[in-house]
Amino acid sequence: MTDKVLGVILGGGQGSRLSPLTQTRSKPAVPIAGKYRLVDIPISNCLNSGIHRMFVLTQFNSASLNKHIKNTYHFSHFSTAFVDILAAEQTVQNAGWFQGTADAVRQCMHHIVSHEFDYILILSGDQLYQMDFKDMIEKHIEANAEITIATIPVTGKDATDFGILKADEENMITSFIEKPKTGLEDWVSDTGPEMQGEGRNFLASMGIYVFNREYLINILNENEEEKDFGKEILPRAIEQSRVLSYQYEGYWTDIGNISSFFEANLGLTDEIPKFNMFDSNHTIFTRARMLPPSKISGTTLEKTIIAEGCIVQASRVEHAVLGIRARIGKHTVVTNSYIMGSDRYQTLEEIQSETDKGNSLIGIGDRCYINNAIIDKNCRIGNDVKINGGSHLEDGDFELYAVKDGIVVIKKGAVLPSGTVI
User: Fold this and answer.
1) Domain coordinates of the chain in residue numbers?
2) Can you tell me the distance from the alpha carbon of 363 to that of 341, in angstroms, rounded to the nearest whole number?
3) Are 37 and 151 in contact (CB under 8 A)?
4) DSSP code of 395?
5) What angle do CA 284, 287, 290 make, to 5 degrees?
6) What would the 3-class secondary structure string for 248-297 be?
7) Is a pLDDT exceeding 80 seen at residue 226?
8) Nearest residue to 122 (alpha-carbon basis) of 77, 56, 188, 61
């Protein structure tokens, strides 16, 4: 795999549906599960599958993503492995930004083809899943396909949010429609007894593709007006080429908005989570931080994931994820929330100085109540603060926080004075 396959991870666009988490960072750089970044998921899937050469294509708010990749993915001097950033750049041939997924690959193709490979694996940088790409590529080769699309069975309710396709008895894709709103009955597929038993009768594209090298070069050069794989390139390819459906039935979620991001993180606290971080065959790689173990004092913990370096004195933390260096004060209750933590510790001198001035410290203060919330990194939540998200709150974007689907998102670095109520 190492020699035959090159991975390309798409950094995504502006990520407005995941705002305000994407106000200062790109989607793949958003922290997930307390200690990882979203981009670690596709990179880890590649490494676990024996694919050790990857490009990450970036454009919006890419500084933190670039820094994370530079500080994380180091390989032996005697290895050909790499994870390199390809940022949008002006050239003599193209002075514009990436206009879509296919356009991003097209603009970077002169860098990509300088490497030897037979197959190119194109991935999204904002999905949560564990997949063995070796099996997918082997099926691609066996079927003598020119493109393979990873597909997942979905219900009729979810089908309207995806590209839906149909395949023949050899799993070759015969037709494709982007986000159908009507006529779903014409797109029912034989997804197998287990999937049909769950009402998952439609095959949705996962945005994961394998292309033969020369085929991809040719199809991108044929029509430079086509900017997107899902909407333009693939529908045309299906009509004239061998395009294989690789059906995947494991856990997969597209982190498209605040609600799906929130559910994906809190789902990790389940007794048997759908996304298994505790699987030694599917290691999730990330930056190795030299942090102390977390310290818990007088806290009742229930269904909670705690990353390294936390200092927790809360009275109760339930159904929550606490990120690196999270600090929570005495008599505080945190439920149904993701606390991202912070990038640094305050020194004892800083803490004393801020306390003397009556300022809030980095972290969550004493006697607070936090429910249905995401607290982004480096926030300062004072004492006696009450944040109670839920359906009773209207969506809105405010100076220090936003409300989306009842979830209160405290913006990165926000300072909430003591006594604040949301």
Assistant:
1) 2-269, 295-416
2) 7
3) no
4) P
5) 120
6) CCCCEEECCCHHHHHHHHHHCCCCCCCCCCCCHHHCCCCCCCCCCCCEEC
7) no
8) 56
300: region left, alpha or beta (phi > 0 left; psi from -120 to 50 alpha): beta
Question: In 3D, which of 9, 45, 247 has the Cα closest to residue 132?
Answer: 45
Phi and psi for 113 in degrees, rounded to 5? -75, -5
> Does residue 245 surpass a pLDDT of 90?
yes
Which residues lie across from 396 on neighbouring strands?
403
> Whole-angstrom Cα distance, residue 184 to residue 31?
36
Q: How confident is the model at residue 1 (pLDDT cuts 50, 70, 90)?
A: low
Band (pLDDT 50/70/90 cuts) for residue 340 is very high
Q: Do 209 and 148 contact (CB within 8 A), yes or no?
A: yes
Q: Closest Cα to residue 62, out of 35, 105, 28?
A: 28
What are the residues whose beta carbons fall under 8 Å from the beta carbon of 13, sequence distance 6 or more?
A: 59, 60, 98
Three-state SS for 26-83 is CHHHCEECCCEECCHHHHHHHHHCCCCEEEEEECCCCHHHHHHHHHHCCCCCCCCCEE
Q: Is 163 left (phi over 0), alpha (psi -120 to 50) or beta?
A: beta
Confirm if 372 and 407 have CB atoms less than 8 A apart: yes
- Residue located via tokens 């409300």: 403
As its CATH architecture, domain 2-269 has Alpha-Beta Complex (3.90)
Distance CA 39, CA 48 (A): 14
Is residue 22 within 8 Å of 38, Cβ to Cβ?
Answer: no
Residues 45 and 133: beta-carbon distance below 8 Å = yes
**Which 3 state secondary structure label does DSSP give 386?**
strand
State which fold the 295-416 domain adopts: UDP N-Acetylglucosamine Acyltransferase; domain 1 (2.160.10)
pLDDT per position as a tens digit, 139-172 = 999 999 999 999 999 988 888 888 899 988 889 9
β-bridge mates for residue 87, sequence order = 58
Q: In this structure, how many other beta carbons lie within 10 angstroms of the beta carbon of residue 144? A: 9
Here the tokens at position 55 are 């490009």
